[in-house]
Amino acid sequence: MKAVIVGCGAIADRWARTLTADPRIDVVAVVDPDIDRAEQLAARRCPAAVPATSLRQAHAQVRADLVANLTPPQLHAAVSREALAAGLHVLTEKPLALQASDAVELAELARANRRTLAVMHNRAHDPEFVAFADMATAAQRGPLAVTAEVVVNLHDPGFRREQPLPVTTDLAVHAFDQVQALISGDPAQVAATEMALPFLGAHCGLAAITITFADGSVLCYRGGYAGPGLTTSAVGKWRVDGPDLAARWEPRDQTSSVRPPAYQRCITTMLDTVQAVTAGAVTPWPTLGLRSVAMLQAALTAARTGRPADVSPIPQEQP
Ligand SMILES: NC(=O)c1ccc[n+]([C@@H]2O[C@H](COP(=O)([O-])OP(=O)(O)OC[C@H]3O[C@@H](n4cnc5c(N)ncnc54)[C@H](O)[C@@H]3O)[C@@H](O)[C@H]2O)c1
């Protein structure tokens, strides 16, 4: 399968390493409006790839089967739409989109075109977190009270320097993915604030997000981009209380989820899906990604307006 990497920033190196190590994949083009970045990524990881400044330009020069969408979040929907419309499978970094309506439209377009739309969920698929969530939910005891705290010290913030509400937009979406393994009720309402910390860096801030769920469960999330004093491990601290249940997940060090092999497993699974869909399987409906976008949209609205926002319902998978 021939792959095009779109967005040659910090995370692209990790994707390029994994894609070039997979015998099923040839990276045929690397795209970035900053052509130096595209050329540098090609030189470092995939010398045969054509550098280009747009997907359209790359598509005019090389035939491709799939796109890895590694652009900043506000471009995810447009880049994925362009790729799906051109008949390409899409593997996208999180979030799937910033608006639930865009995310649903992309899922429907992928279904209609019989193409894959796969979203990176490396935190939700962290094997240690999955084991914790399985343990916490095994007895189905009823509504849960969940807190999560994740503060990250970034050395290369990239787009986050100009991103409005960068913590909510870029970091909290991991928690929106993860909480779905703990709470099965539909997310109902979100209260959110994000305070910028410009004295620590243009991308720095602290977000406090509370989500209530239809089954009575509550998630209180505190996340941030800050300095080394506030930093938690990259996967943070999760705590859960429920009727007859108390559980904690506080890994001290970075877990396997943030090391390349686990990230690599996520990408490999996405490529397996592309292969299956190419062989005729029905395009999987990206329920996890869609529900996260619905929570994200409500969190962004609440943070902008200062008022709680309702979470849009996500359509069920079409037969
Ligand atoms: N899953 C994870 O753990 C994880 C970790 C880091 C980043 N990410 C995600 O990866 C994405 C990229 O993050 P990053 O840290 O690499 O950001 P970055 O700012 O380092 O890189 C983004 C790149 O996209 C390029 N770009 C901008 N507009 C473009 C366009 N129209 N077409 C092609 N390229 C364009 C920029 O020039 C830049 O090189 C984000 O969505 C982020 O949330 C995910």
TrEMBL record:
InterPro entries linked: Gfo/Idh/MocA-like_OxRdtase_N, Gfo/Idh/MocA_Oxidoreductases, NAD(P)-bd_dom_sf
Protein name: Gfo/Idh/MocA family protein
Entry-linked Gene3D superfamilies: Dihydrodipicolinate Reductase, domain 2 (3.30.360.10), NAD(P)-binding Rossmann-like Domain (3.40.50.720)
Occurrences of domain Gfo/Idh/MocA-like oxidoreductase N-terminal (ranges): 2-121
PANTHER family in alphabetical order: BILIVERDIN REDUCTASE A (PTHR43377)
Coiled-coil regions listed: none
